[in-house]
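Holo prediction — pyridoxal-5'-phosphate.
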Amino acid sequence: MTENKKMGNLSTPVHSLAALPSVDRLLGVPAIATLGQTHGQSIVVRAIRQILDERRQRFQSASLYAEDLSQERLVQDVEQTLGRLLQPSLRPVINLSGTVLHTNLGRALLPERAVEAVVNAMRHPVNLEYALEAGHRGDRDDLIRERICALTGAEDATVVNNNAAAVFLMLNTLAFRRQVVVSRGELVEIGGSFRIPDIMSRAGARLREVGTTNRTHRHDYERAIHERTGMLMKVHCSNYEIQGFTHEVPLAELAALGAQYDIPATVDLGSGTLINMQSYGLPAEPTVQENIRQGARVVTFSGDKLLGGPQSGILVGDRESIQAIKKNPLKRMLRVDKLTLAALDAVLSLYEQPEHLAEQLTTLRLFTRPIEEIKAQARRWQEAFQQWVGPEFEVQAQPMYSQIGSGALPVEALPSYGLCCVYQGSGRTSRAVIQLEEALRRLPTPVVGRIQQQNLYLDFRCLSAADEEKLRLNFYHKQ
Ligand SMILES: *Cc1c(COP(=O)(O)O)cnc(C)c1O
């Protein structure tokens, strides 16, 4: 041990904290010096400090006596730590979870046209708030207003950070210190702390619940109306469904009631699609244009759910309401940036070419992928996965169901295909499956599957050609 220290020999394993080399000494090791030249000294020093600290801590916790302090090992660790430090925090993953619009994985994947638009907006000055024709200051909403209005039939439109912000802004503008009448069947909670009653009170509006969980009638709304009523609001039950003995008041009827008392009827549509989903063989979902046609004064919906665009919240409605919303000082805080507008504009432009939508709009392409194609792909990968997981699991190719996700159409599923890893070993199944799920997450390009009934499911619906290349590298890396 002392011998090692005196001789400065880093090549044999040693067993003492005192034998840890200094930062400077490690910087002098040729392999590490090269790293310093390539990436700059500062970050390499950070990596060295980090691994030395880790070593010290492990010695102190006495969990490791025979720590390998050989030069090779230390250099390896520095390289690995440096690799981690240089890696971006936001990394691509392979979504085999079976949920297409996965909120934790960033929801909608943007189509190529949107990607190009965003790159352009990042690289070059753009007419974000500059009216090119007139040559003076413009309004950023003008970039997308015409497209949204043409697609939805609304008079006016504006865009904010997300649909939660859109709902908030609508309530705060049109119903501040006034009552908002909502059916008890529609007091929705969306994941991530979006709850209608909470948003409402934060927005300064007063919730007036009417009806019951399963049945609400026109007279329930009508009886609640008085001089402090500011709005009749419908909320789309995105992530649940009330079945059985139910009744809700159709929007057209609610809008007519509102008109009678001069109170706006509005809708938080949640996902809100612009297309007839059924014509693509998908489950029905109310469209934004239907809601406008049925008399909603304002409709709010998400940009990154069924629409397939960037995170944003879109408000459409009559000119007076939208203009009032735009004048709310909070709009300035909730507005979107040029990257979001670039992406949204590009996505909306795809809707103007409906003949090509199913192939151009990434989310719609994923929703409508032919099952035969998914099946062939899963079969192609079966062997490689079997090799990778080893004999402890049997990898079966089988039909399964994908979810649309993000609360859209919660009880509907899309028939899909994929691989199911079934534990064959003698240990505890649940632990083995959790470990497999973890191992997939730790791959150079993490793979996200889903555990269900003690099996690990890998749904191939969302596996793109680019993902397949990354999968190949993943498995190659292991060998
Ligand atoms: C998803 C959803 C929201 C929240 O939308 P974000 O874009 O996630 O902010 C609000 N209301 C309903 C009904 C929803 O489905």
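READOUT: Confidence is low (pLDDT under 50) at residues 1-14.
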